[in-house]
Amino acid sequence: MAPEFHELPESHLCSGTTVTRRAPYGGSVELLAGLLREADICIGGTRPWDMRLHRAEAADRILLHGSMGLGESYMDGDWDAPQVDELIHRIVRAHLDRAARSPKFVWHVLRAHLTNLQSPRRAKLVGEVHYDLGNDFFEAMLDPYMAYTCGYWADADDLATAQEAKLDLVCRKLGLRPGMCLLDIGCGWGSLMKFAAERYGVRCVGLTISRAQAEYGRERCAGLPVEFRLMDFREIDEPFDRIASLGMFEHVGRHNLRTYFAVARRCLRDDGLFLLHTIGNNFRTAHTDPWIDRYIFPNGDLPALRQVAKAVEHLFVIEDLHNFGADYDRTLMAWHARFEAAWPRFAGRYGERFRRMWSYYLLSCAGAFRARDLQLWQIMLSPDGVPDGYRRPA
C-alpha cells in the first residue's frame, strides 16, 4: 500500500530552515515534529541538530517508548543528525523527556524500587557486558593512563592533559605522601593507582569486578607497588590511609549506599580521607535511563546529593564538594573523536549496529552534561572532621 503524504504544519517548521513539506508521514510524525519543535529541532531540517527521519515508523517508536525508542531507532538507522550530541542537548534542555514516557516506564520504576539490582550476584553483570568488551577497544578510545572518568579541563586543551590533571587533583586533594597505602574502590585499569604510585610514591590496592581490567592493569603496573583484586567492594576489610573511588559509585545502587559507606569507613584509618568521584543527578529519581540500563551500564543508578548526604550520616563528615560536570561534555566528545578514528580497526569485530550504539551512548551523554542535567562531583569525606578544617588544594 502506498504511504499517505501529509504536510507538516507551519508551526512545526523552524525559522530560517528549509524542510521537506510533503513526505510519506502520518500523524505520528506530525506529533513528533510538534514535540521536537519545542526544543527548536526540525524533522528534515538542514541545521546540524535537526533530525533526518529515514523511517516514519520511528516516530511511533519514539513517542511510545521515549528514551528507549529514541536510542533503539538510532541504532537501527531509522534516523540521523549530523550532531546527535546537540540534538540530545536541546531535547534535555527543553525537558522533552518528561513529555513522552513509555507505558513500560512504570515497570522500570517499580523494578528499581523493589529489586536490589546491584546485589553481589548481579554486580558483576556490568563488568561482563561493558568493561570486558576488549582492552584494546578501550585503549584506542581513552588516554594513555586509561582513565574512564571525567577529565579536568581547567587548564587543559587535550584529553591526555585533562586526565593527568584530574589524577593529580585527586592525589593532591587526598594529600598523598610516600609510604601511604591507598585503596581504590572500582579501580578500572589502574589509572589512578599507576599515577599515584609513580608520582606520589604510595602503595595501592584496587578493587574491580572485571577480569579483563584486572589482567590488563597488572601488566601495565608491573614493577609498581600496585595490587589488583578481582572482588566485590563488600568483601574488603583492612585498614588504609586513604580511599578513592572514581566512577564506580554509579553502579552501587540506592539499596546499597549505606553499605558502601560503611565498608569505606571500616577500611579508613581515623585520620584518613576519602575522595568520592561520581556522576550525579540534580534531583532524586525513581529510575535510571532505560536505554543506558539495557545497552550500556546494566543496573546503573545515579545518586542525588541528598541520597549521598543521608547515606554518610554518622559515618563521615562532608569536607568539600567540587562540581565540574561541564567538563564531562568535553571528555565524552574527545572519547567519541578517538572512537570514530579507531573504528576501522574494530568494525569487523563489533558491526555497524554496535558502532551506532556506542556513538549514541557517547554523544547523548555529552548532550546531557551540556544541558547540565547531569553533574560530576568530587566529594571529600573524613571520619570525624579534619582538625582546623579541610582546605581544597589550589
**Low-confidence runs of at least 5 consecutive residues:** 1-8, 16-25, 100-119, 122-127
| Major beta sheet, strand line-up | 7-6-5-8-9-11-10
The top level CATH class name of the largest domain: Alpha Beta
Succession of helices and strands: EEHEHEHHHHHHEHEHEEHEHHEHHHE
Specify Rg, calculated over alpha carbons.
22 Å
Q: Find the CATH superfamily of the largest domain.
A: Vaccinia Virus protein VP39
Biggest sheet features: 7 strands, mixed
Q: Tell me what the CATH architecture of the largest domain is.
A: 3-Layer(aba) Sandwich
Helix content: 40-55%
- Strand percent estimate: 15-25%
The averaged pLDDT comes out at 88
The tally of strands reads 11
Class based on secondary structure composition and strand pairing: alpha/beta
What is the number of domains? 2
Keywords: Lipid metabolism, Methyltransferase, S-adenosyl-L-methionine, Transferase
InterPro entries: CFA/CMAS, CMAS, SAM-dependent_MTases_sf
Protein name: Cyclopropane fatty acyl phospholipid synthase
Organism: Aromatoleum petrolei
Characterise the protein shown here.
InterPro entries: CFA/CMAS, CMAS, SAM-dependent_MTases_sf. Its EC number is 2.1.1.79. Keywords: Lipid metabolism, Methyltransferase, S-adenosyl-L-methionine, Transferase. One of its GO terms (molecular function) is cyclopropane-fatty-acyl-phospholipid synthase activity. It is a single chain. It contains 16 helices and 11 strands. With 394 residues, it is of the alpha/beta class. It folds into 2 domains: 9-103, no CATH class; 120-382, Vaccinia Virus protein VP39 (Rossmann fold). Helix 9 links the parallel strand 5 (181-185) and strand 6. It starts with 5 loop residues before the first strand and ends in a 12-residue tail after the last strand.
